[in-house]
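New to this. Explain the following:
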Amino acid sequence: LNQRIAKVALEKEELDIAAEKESYLAEHCTPLSLPSSLQDLQDLCKKLHAKIDVVDEERYDMEQKVQKSSKELEDLNQKIFDLRGKFKRPPLKRVRMSADAMLRALLGSKHKVNMELRANLKQVKKEDTDKEKDLRDVGDWRKNIEEKSGMEGRKKMFESES
């Protein structure tokens, strides 16, 4: 029920808008009657160009008025600023800034620059190999040499490997 009422109201509103548009156009725009002779057409074009010139002059005058008033507004704002007193600069503090932060401030955040070279290096995990385990287990190398010296030491090496 509400949808039907709303639909009828919308249709009525559209009809009212169309009728209002027609009446406005009939009131303000006279129907166009193009003259048949060449001289009459030239006269009509001259009249239209004269009206265009008048409208352009009014537009130019309005632009000049707007520019003048905006300039006055800027001047008045400057006077207000001057009357309030001079701007006091706060005492600046020294700030310690890293090279990265300085480059980021100068170049903007779009450019990624990193002065710390170690950050660019890859980190590799160290894998424990059998040789390194043996070296760790052996301990002092001099003892190992003494044990393996001579024929008995070499015999022990072959027996331990197999």
